[in-house]
Amino acid sequence: VPGLAFDKSGYRLGRGKAYYDRLLPRLVNAYKLGVGFSFQLLEEVPCEPHDELLDEVLIGSPEIL
Questions:
Q1: Strand 56-60, strand 33-37: pairing
Q2: What residues have CB less than 8 Å from 46, skipping those under 6 apart?
Q3: Which residues contact residue 60 at a Cβ distance below 8 angstroms, ignoring those fewer than 6 apart?
Q4: 29-47 pLDDT, tens per residue?
């Protein structure tokens, strides 16, 4: 799942349209993985009651090898 920012609790900051917040609850057996770069990992992102928690966040380096 893409995002603008993530935190270590598994919350993500999206673009405010709640697309993934509506989609993810329908995917009951899906493993919810956020994907981003190290600069997108924050201590805490603002969250609301409807925000979906991710199972894990995979953080990579922005460098191209």
A1: parallel
A2: 13
A3: 35, 36, 37, 38
A4: 999 999 999 999 999 999 8
Which value, in Å, is the radius of gyration of the alpha carbons in the chain? 12
**Which residue, among 25, 27, 34, has the nearest Cα to 54 in the 3D structure?**
34
Q: What b/e string do you get for 29-42 counting C-beta neighbours within 10 Å, with b at 16 or more?
A: eeebebbbeeebee
Q: Is the pLDDT of residue 65 over 90?
A: no
CB count in 10 Å sphere of residue 59: 14
Two tokens, residue 51: 């925000």
Pairwise CA distance, residues 19 & 45, whole Å: 17
